[in-house]
Amino acid sequence: MKVYEAAAIRNVAVVGHGGCGKTQLVAAALLAAGAVNRLGLVDDGSTVTDFDDEEIARKHSLSSSLAHGEWQKTKINFIDTPGFANFFSDARSALRVAEAALVVVDSVHGVEVQTEKAWEEAASLGLPRIVALSRLDRERASLDRALETLHRDCAREIVPIQLPIGEEKSFTGVVDLVSMKAFTFAGDSSGRMTEGEIPAAMADRAAQSRTALIEMVAEADERLMDAFFANGTLSQEELTSGLRTATAAGKLFPLVCTAGLRAIGAQPLLDAIVTLVPSPAERGFAAADAAGEPVTVAASDSGPYAVFVWKSIADPFAGRITMLRVVGGTIRSDTSVHNHTRDAGERLGHLLALQGKTQTHVPELRAGDLGAVAKLKDTHTGDLLAEAGSKIRVPALSFPEPVLSYAIEPKSRGDEDKISTSMHRLQEEDPSIGYSRDPQTHELLLSGQGQLHIEVTVAKLKRRFGVEVLLKPPRIPYRETITAATEAHGRHKKQTGGHGQFGDCKIRVEPLPRGSDFAFENDIFGGSIPRQFVPAIEKGIQDARMRGFLAGYPMVDFKATVFDGSFHAVDSNELSFKMAGSLAFKDAMTRARPTILEPIMKVEIYTPTDFAGDLMGDLNGRRGRIAGMDARGHMTVIRAQVPMAEMLTYEQQLTSATGGRGSYHMEYSHYEEVPSHQQQKIIAVAKAERAGVEVEEV
Ligand SMILES: Nc1nc2c(ncn2[C@@H]2O[C@H](COP(=O)(O)OP(=O)(O)OP(=O)(O)O)[C@@H](O)[C@H]2O)c(=O)[nH]1
Ligand SMILES: [Mg+2]
Fold first, then answer.
1. CA-CA distance, 693 to 644, in Å (whole number)?
2. Deepest in the core among 223, 376, 450, 585, taking most CB within 10 A?
């Protein structure tokens, strides 16, 4: 395996909506670069980057994976990312270690929900972007229609540098508007390409499109603008260098035309990546200095090493596989390094180049490259390996909080310990899953970004760790709160025989704004309770509030103030005051008019306009509030706020109502009071659960 210097490396994160053709396009690119000798197919599970059993079974990427090919003496690292919203945090991490995003857009559907999310994410990182129009061989595929949605929803500055030759089934190649050459393809799994003249019938259109491209390039640079006005056009040299500079600066976003399944357009895509995407030596890695100010670290082989851990994989056999981006310096196999984040030593074993699941030992990894290493002791996703005195800091990777929880139960008793160790390892691979025990029901809770996310996690538990679990209906993380202020009294007294117990306190409780959780204040004057017992009172209230009052959900958004009480010189102790605090809380709840809160989700639905009316009716039935609606060509975006409890089955509903054409994105927004008739049901379910009786969910 060759070693590449930063100037000969390109790191590209392949992002876009689920099912738009990313993995298939990477497969075609790897074939064109000679990294594989046959075209991998998503549909028969033979691609390099969808290698996990679950990915093959579902025909969707569920996790980012790394592959590389050499083109024009340059190593291109592709990070193929999952398009489904449930797994988007993986795409986000990938964008952090790439110099550019390859935004794949289906040429039939145009821009979709996750296209926009990926675009926004790349934009927020200031990343150069190349747009690859995909699946151009399909019926109703259209450059013009897709470009219209791109201009409207992503950026005006997206500009074709190619035109498709032929359309739909007869899509056979591309005209390159920079070189003004035609590239036609065998269209089979060979990926064979022939260079030739532009077909006569396309000459006019190609000339017009080239002029449009030249104008866009000139507009992005004042100096070129002057040249353009002076000469009425740009020279070939001005066009290529101008396009490169404008792309690197994020002022222009070149668009290429492809059909991965037929290996069409792959070589010109590789050309575009090598010539237009900045190398790690040019762009560098976005980090921060010791004071937290943003700095970019240009990749340089010499100088101190700095390595960022952007992902971990839990492999039951190989142990942990840690995915690295060498930010600076050079690291070598079998050497010791320092984990700067944890201030601990770490030993590197064999460094690895990854081609999907295939690992190749490499002696060293240089600045700018992506690779991996197995079996690190205590290094986790988001860590930085660097010398102890290094001034480099790396902003944390962000992972969304889980939005949905299911109770799980091991199929065989005794597997509980195994679940917890396996879950621990899966969580390391995917920090957006949660695992905890319900304090009320003592059930094990598995939380994630959506139903699919939970199902996939359960499947991984089984396939990788041999642990089978049953999924129970999802649990909504309800909360309780109070709506009135009141004073209350708690007295714990046990003074019969022996050493007695005595604690006595008066508290005031009052509602706080949504999202403030819990506050405690000590307002005792004159020593009616000795100071050392006050924390015990707080602890008593804390414990009691976590157990809730109405239906066993944590009580939030209120303040408790202890303002009076009494004590006994001999019998008072911490335990007694803890009990008193807990009793005072319960007393307060009888008058503080407690109520139940439910999580409200912010939902965005993309649907063909024909279905929008029905979907809005359905959302009303789910207690949803429509916040807005936008027409996007033949698609409509519906924005709404809907209680989480009503969204549990939405995935299936949307798929069946729109024949699979609709998609949605959902995230947690805030808590709101549950309507009273609904509250009664929640309370009844909680009571029955406490009594150990199985009931249907509300
Ligand atoms: N006709 C046609 N189908 C394609 C083409 N590229 C991909 N497909 C099909 O589209 C489906 C999705 O392709 P993938 O490559 O898995 O899409 P993806 O973007 O990786 O999807 P996620 O991993 O879920 O985000 C598969 O059934 C592919 O066979 C293409 O060029 N032409
Ligand atoms: Mg994929």
1. 24
2. 585
